[in-house]
Design goal:
This protein is mostly beta strands. Helix content is 1%, strand content 55%.
């Protein structure tokens, strides 16, 4: 019998010391390959020695060393951006090298919601994002670069940050970054002149809810992290002040919570560049909620690699276009071709699952027509609008060669009227409803687009004229004085013959 030959490999032995200078108890260490996709971590040794056998090459080293007793009790985060393993090697990781971290917001009365030290390393066609989040401040976390001074490591971005709140209406999202090397401790008092201001408004499509907003940063490698500020009553506003590191963007994540503090709806904004001294605004959680092809967590449409599909169609994106999802009462997703089912999923239980991408594997390789349908409902105690949302898409797809991911030609139509924070409009008045076309029809062109409206929750429908001017499309609705809600339906065909239909029952409510 022949044994597989080991690739050229060497022993790496790490002597790990805690902040008292004693052998560390249960250190946690990660080795990330910079030349090849290797990810290793140590077993939970108690003698302060971490032992690895790894292929020859360069590695990024992350170590979390806990000191369990004494005046130095706490955690040390030690990072070596690049370690070269070309022979059997012994090194020392010493928590006594770690230094304190301190961030102070402009308002001394603001209190910390959470603090973190992290980094992103991109190499060998992949990336590693790792960090330590504290539940409060940095008092029990110290950080340092290990391994001595080295040349800047390509693809390495380090971050320290914290979120502070003053009451429920003001938050400070502080982030400081470093390229090529990790921090040896950090201390900074933020000045107001360093900050941009983002005024966040959040609606309430149901009564008795609270909201949570977290600012998430995105590095040049599109990796992100953030901490939520203090919850506030809905509808409501929260002002966020953010730092503006070079080449970083900020997005905001919103959660609607119920009486049991359970998460009910979620919306996320894409990262954008902020400038110090400037003011910005965003509105979340206001209708019309519906399916979207917008980019964002859990979004992006439908793509194919080889014979496998990935379906990412958030069903409750809000009226501002923030990719969104919601708990559901019933759910159904199907994919068929020529009467043959390739996906059939249903649920009748209340689910708290968000932004789910659904895989479909081993489709036929030949090009053929497909029909994708989605049907979702949600309880009125979660939201009094978009209580039932259904959509369908038809498109043609065949095997995609190689390993590339091809985005398939789907489209979506969103309705974007100006509504109150409760997602209502006035009965007995006229309202203009802008139409937002996304996906293939927005890029290739629209062959046909019709809109229907119902004032009896979908029992009867009537067509309404779509007015177009350039890329702008809208309908104007005359609300009956005695109607209680408005339901909307759109049918679209793009210039390639692909179709889309969306129906939203109780798209918004009417008040007198």
């Amino acid at each position: 019998m022949a044994a597989d030959a080991e690739v050229e490999s060497y022993d790496l032995t790490m002597n790990v010391l805690d902040a008292n200078g004693d052998p560390a108890y249960f250190p946690f260490i990660i080795l990330y390959g910079l030349d090849s996709p290797v990810l290793l971590w140590n077993q939970r040794y108690t003698d302060g020695i971490a032992r690895f056998r790894a292929p020859k090459g360069a590695y990024n080293v992350f170590a979390l060393v806990t000191t369990w007793s004494g005046s130095a009790a706490g955690s040390a985060q030690l990072v070596q951006p690049r370690l070269s393993l070309t022979e059997d090697t012994s090194t020392v990781l010493d928590a006594r090298e770690a230094k304190p971290v301190s961030l102070t917001p402009p308002d001394p009365d603001a209190t910390s919601n959470g603090a973190y030290a992290s980094y992103v390393m991109r190499a060998a066609g992949s990336s590693l994002a790792v960090g330590i989040l504290t539940g409060g401040d940095f008092s029990r976390l110290r950080i340092a670069q290990s391994g001595g001074a080295t040349s800047p490591a390509s693809g390495f971005e380090a971050q320290v940050g914290a979120t502070f709140s003053k009451g429920t209406d003001t938050a400070y999202d502080l982030l400081y970054t470093k390229s090529g090397s990790f921090f040896d401790g950090f201390s900074h008092t933020t000045r107001t002149s360093e900050l941009a201001r983002a005024d966040i408004s959040a609606g309430a499509p149901a009564a008795g809810k609270t909201g949570s907003v977290g600012a998430t940063w995105y590095s040049p490698f599109d990796e992100g992290y953030g901490v939520a500020a203090t919850d506030f009553a809905l509808p409501g506003r929260q002002r966020h002040y953010v730092t503006v590191p070079k080449n970083y963007t900020w997005g905001f994540d919103f959660l609607q919570k119920g009486a049991d503090d359970g998460h009910e709806t979620y919306q996320s904004s894409a990262g954008r560049t902020y400038r110090a001294g400037r003011s910005y605004s965003e509105t979340f959680n206001t209708g019309v909620f519906g399916p979207s092809l917008a980019e964002g967590p859990g979004g992006g449409g439908v793509s194919r690699t080889g014979d496998d599909l990935k379906i990412c169609l958030p069903q409750f994106t809000d009226g501002s276009g923030h990719v969104g999802d919601s708990v559901t009462g019933t759910a159904k997703v199907t994919l068929t071709s020529g009467g043959v089912p390739y996906l059939y999923r249903t649920s009748s239980a209340l689910e708290r699952k968000y932004l789910r991408c659904r895989p479909v594997t081993t489709l036929p390789g030949a090009r053929q027509s497909y029909r994708l349908t989605t049907e979702f409902s949600r309880p009125t105690e979660v939201s009094g609008v978009s209580t039932r949302v259904s959509a369908s898409w038809t498109f043609v797809s065949g095997r995609v060669s190689g390993t590339r991911e091809a985005v398939l030609p789907l489209s979506s139509v969103r309705f974007a009227p100006e509504l109150t924070s409760a997602s209502t409009a006035k009965a007995g008045t006229r309202l203009t409803v802008p139409l937002v076309v996304e996906g293939a029809a927005a890029m290739r062109g629209t062959k046909a687009l019709t809109v229907e409206v119902s004032y009896d929750a979908g029992t009867t429908w009537r067509k309404t004229a779509v007015r177009s001017s350039g890329n702008t499309r809208q309908v104007t609705l005359a609300h009956p004085a005695d109607a209680g809600s408005v339901s909307l339906r759109a049918r679209l065909t793009d210039t390639g013959g692909n179709t889309h239909t969306v129906t939203i029952i109780d798209a918004y409510r009417l008040t007198r």
